[in-house]
Amino acid sequence: MANEKNIILTGDRPTGRLHLGHYVGSLKRRVELQNSGRFDAINILIADDQALTDNADNPAKIRDNIVQVALDYLSVGIDPNKSTICIQSALPALHALTFYYMNLVTTARLSRNPTVKAEIQMRGFADEGLPAGFFSYPVSQAADITAFNATVVPVGEDQLPMIEQTREIVEKFNRIYGETLVFPKALIPENETQRRLPGVDGKAKMSKSLGNCIYLSDDAKTVKKQVNGKMFTDPQHLRIEDPGHLEGNVVFTYLDALATDAHFAAFLPEYANLGEMKAHYCRGGLGDGTCKKFLINVLETELGPIRAERAKWEADIDAVYDVLREGTKRAVEITNETLERVRAAMRINYFNDRSIVKEWETLLKAAKLQ
Ligand code: TRP
Predict the structure, then answer these.
(1) Mean pLDDT per 10-residue interval, the chain, length 370 residues
(2) From ligand 1's centre to the CA of 33, what distance in Å?
(3) pTM over 0.85
(4) Structural domains of the chain, ranges and CATH numbers in brackets
(5) Most buried residue among 45, 93, 103, 119 by CB atoms closer than 10 A?
(6) 98 lines ligand 1 (CB under 6 A)
(7) Is 253 in the pocket of ligand 1 (CB under 6 A)?
(8) Which ligand 1 atom is the nearest neighbour of the CA of 140?
(9) Separation of 119 CA from ligand 1 center, angstroms?
(10) Residue 142, pLDDT score
């Protein structure tokens, strides 16, 4: 086997600034994993090639958002000394691996991917025509994951089909060409609400087009406005004394995802924890204004330091560029090494040495003898 190390690979498409949904669903966890010391390597891929599969007409959008995503990473605490941040399009081995893996996957199998199916609907590709690149991006994602020899892939729930697909490719590759690729495992958030934080309007996942996001780069005023202006509580909770309901109550959904006992000690010491606060709300006597104010405090506790860190990096974009360049350089080496191994396993590494000359000579001689 290639290695028995503990290696992380994860990534994001650079199609916009990252938001609170990304933060609670994935970024926060990445930083914890990074700082846990449990991993031999942590790689974070800015998946610009994948982003192009549904933005071919707008490469400028991807280009502009690479720096936004890099700033988001650095500001939440991804440390370039501990993690490798790299740009997908600058890793040629990924393109080659994708091309080989394409042969190990059927179009029927790709058609069954539930996440891609949903995305096809959302983007209107069902009517307009489906770009082949978009249809097959799970194969390129398998290349991403295997190229880094990743054992652990921390992702949101919607990415499970990609990991499943990757495991099938690994299984098939190893069966045909011999043990070469490492099997990855997905790591998804344990907390249900962290997996799928709804937008501030409570309707769906946070998404730029719905305008229901809280961005990591939003200022305090904007965050407050989103909470006070757009967030639903309980429409039946008209007077403070009325019993309140938690179901569909977005303020409490966010608190479920974010609030810790320390937040209560700091901002709402009349409750020890969220359980006590919820009980009071349901009993009646706890106003929505108080709940929102508490949530804003919780959000600021999380977002304040992120915002400050972002400001530091924003003042030195040269340094951000260097982080990307250095990380990508390291990633080129790692992924090229995997491509070499893959080509060796497939015995298509023709120019490594001249041993194939002997092989061809023997073959020709044997043919003559017949
Ligand atoms: N598909 C992922 C997303 O949309 C981004 C991604 C690309 C990724 N390559 C990856 C995630 C490899 C994990 C591992 O968010």
Answers:
(1) 80 96 91 96 98 97 98 98 98 98 98 96 92 97 98 92 98 98 93 85 83 95 95 89 93 95 97 97 95 98 97 98 98 98 96 92 92
(2) 17
(3) yes
(4) 7-196+317-359 (3.40.50.620), 220-313 (1.10.240.10)
(5) 45
(6) no
(7) no
(8) 9
(9) 14
(10) 98
The amino acid present at 321, given as its one-letter code, is Y
Reported for 321-330, long-range contacts at CB under 8 A and 24+ positions apart, including other chains, are 323/70, 323/74, 323/80, 323/85, 324/46, 324/66, 324/70, 324/85, 324/86, 324/87, 326/80, 327/80, 327/83, 327/84, 327/85, 327/86, 328/86, 328/87, 328/90, 328/91, 330/84, 330/86
The Cα 318–Cα 314 span in angstroms is: 9
Q: Is 141 in the pocket of ligand 1 (CB under 6 A)?
A: yes
Query: To test the ligand 1 pocket, which listed residue (159, 182, 196, 334) has its Cβ within 8 A of the most ligand atoms?
Result: 159
pLDDT the model gives residue 138: 98
Residue 94 CB burial class (10 angstroms; 0-12, 13-18, ≥19): buried
